[in-house]
Amino acid sequence: xxxxxxxxxxxxxxxxxxxxxxxxxxxxxxxxxxxxxxxxxxxxxxxxxxxxxxxxxxxxxxxxxxxxxxxxxxxxxxxxxxxxxxxxxxxxxxxxxxxxxxxxxxxxxxxxxxxxxxxxxxxxxxxxxxxxxxxxxxxxxxxxxxxxxxxxxxxxxxxxxxxxxxxxxxxxxxxxxxxxxxxxxxxxxxxxxxxxxxxxxxxxxxxxxxxxxxxxxxxxxxxxxxxxxxxxxxxxxxxxxxxxxxxxxxxxxxxxxxxxx
Length: 261
Prior knowledge:
The chain is of the alpha+beta class. It contains 5 helices and 13 strands. This is NolW-like domain-containing protein.
């Protein structure tokens, strides 16, 4: 009996399809590997010091990524996808330093009470307002006397008293949540001169206090008579003082007036 010759066409077709698939895979894989290849990216900073930005991004470096400094530039190395995420983080951190105007008022108007009433009061009463520009992580000096709050120990309890700084006040500002902490001291803080708890050391006798403020909201420390009665130093306690002379503080962004005058 005669046998029909075997047909190899199906095998040829299957082999050809396999070879085409293999060729396609070989074309795609190099492209994928190229995307994940180790790359280097140089980012030039505009506002913040490079050392500050490098310290901020180091805890967030992905595995296999590295960052270093070159003058005012950050040098990144790693996979493309990681570098893209780091570039976004750096852009968010490299923002202009904040600046505020701190307003110190002394006069016959209790500015906090007046602002809370939301009623414009017309009278002959006046308060002198002194503005001070304070930049982030910097200090500025109010060249006039003012009352500042200071903490004192009475027995085993901590109480807030007030001290009159006749020669002027050093002022700094630190954001804390939705508040701005205005630090008031009798002496300028020396950079790097801190104790184990991170608090600033001062040479000689000094007074230091702080006031928590909200943007555009006046805070009245009190009348002269009230503040004098709470003088932190009993040996220098003032007697009397005006009950209609108020001391108030307000803060606003340097480019946006929000404290009512």
